[in-house]
Specification:
Rossmann fold; 10 helices; 21% strand; extended
């Protein structure tokens, strides 16, 4: 039976999930994490959760915290405040840091945004070999000896031969009784995915716009990791020339100069050809820019080389304080012909939530 503490823990976890669901849009739009992110978990501040605690009654007989003393008098060494303050009667806002797995966050995101589960494109022909210790053998190294199975074989032998003594049950396995863990090779279909992020880092892209890109990318990653095993990421930045960079550089780099989006598409094609053959990988391309562009050779690169191999091509145009460009209007002329193209205008952080729903709501 489930113990009382297990039931209480489960109930507490349900309350936490409910709080997260209620405030999910706020977490998504403003990235209200506490900044500690591990390999599989993040910490989120969840307000107004009442934690069970003891309350002492007051019978007017004194007790704890009673006695002589003046308001503001230090209780002990090191407890005196640097500067005097005034007492207040307003309740504080209690915030509790709750650790939750990224997988659970992705599930909550999917439920709240009603995201369809992704159907990977045909990867049944691509398999990986895995060895699992799931069988028993009569031969093997001592390090793999299965104690329980060896003991059972010795017991069965003694019972069958009539030498087992219930009053003095001494079981001594022989070499014939020994059993060992053994492996079996299995071939499993893979459903690998590669995410390629492209960002304009020309002089018109501000730190605020990069914050939008960072927040949206986190949630995109969380959802796609829930759909696939073996997510790979590549990051490309560009002004008039494109470069492949690591994740930290992607979000921190600051450049200037003009913008030529075609240079980024050419770099994406190089990365796909080098690392992710289209027949074997589910490819996702997320591009963020303020819409300024020089040159008119982008449509051909998209329609002939990228859109045919990508599960999804998403373009998010973040609004620039210097004025946004017309690139999204150019793409709108193509979007009706290509179901795997999704466009989103992101004027500010408040629009991140809806932008994610636009991008991932296709279930591709």
């Amino acid at each position: 039976m489930t113990s009382g503490i297990d039931r209480d823990l489960k109930r507490f976890q349900e309350i936490v999930r409910g709080k997260i669901r209620r405030d999910l849009k706020q977490y998504v739009n403003h990235g209200e994490m506490l900044g500690r992110k591990g390999r599989e978990t993040v910490s989120i501040p969840v307000p107004s959760i009442d934690i069970p605690h003891f309350v002492h009654g007051d019978k007017g007989n004194g007790g704890s915290a009673q006695g002589d003393g003046e308001i503001g008098q230090p209780l002990g060494p090191g407890q005196e405040q640097d500067s005097p303050g005034t007492a207040g009667d307003d309740p504080g806002r209690h915030v509790r840091e709750v650790e939750i797995s990224i997988a659970e966050l992705a599930d909550i995101l999917g439920q709240e945004l009603e995201l369809p589960h992704i159907e990977p494109k045909g990867q049944d022909s691509l398999t990986s070999k895995k060895d699992r210790y799931k069988t028993i053998s009569r031969h093997g190294p001592n390090s793999l000896r299965h104690f329980k199975r060896t003991y059972k074989e010795a017991l069965k032998r003694q019972v069958a031969t009539g030498v087992y003594n219930a009053d003095d049950p001494v079981i001594i396995p022989t070499r014939e009784d020994e059993r060992f863990r053994s492996w079996k090779s299995e071939f499993e279909p893979q459903a690998n995915a590669a995410i390629l992020y492209v960002m304009d880092v020309s002089g018109s892209m501000t730190d605020d716009q990069k914050t939008i890109v960072r927040a949206e990318s986190f949630w995109i990653d969380a959802w796609l990791q829930r759909q696939y095993d073996g997510i790979q990421r590549r990051y490309i930045v560009h002004d008039a020339v494109a470069h492949e960079v690591d994740e930290e550089t992607f979000y921190r780099v600051k450049e200037s100069g003009g913008t030529r989006i075609s240079s980024a598409y050419q770099k994406v094609m190089e990365v796909i050809t080098r690392d992710f053959p289209a027949a074997d990988w589910n490819l996702y391309l997320f591009q963020f820019s303020d819409g300024d562009n020089w040159g008119d050779d982008n449509s051909q690169l998209l329609t002939e080389h990228l859109l045919p191999v990508c599960n999804l091509f998403c373009y998010g145009q973040v609004e620039s304080p210097y004025g946004s460009g017309d690139y999204i209007r150019e793409l709108k002329t193509l979007s009706e012909k290509y179901e795997n193209m999704v466009l989103s205008e992101i004027p500010n952080q408040e629009a991140i939530y809806e932008s994610i729903k636009q991008f991932l709501g296709r279930g591709r």
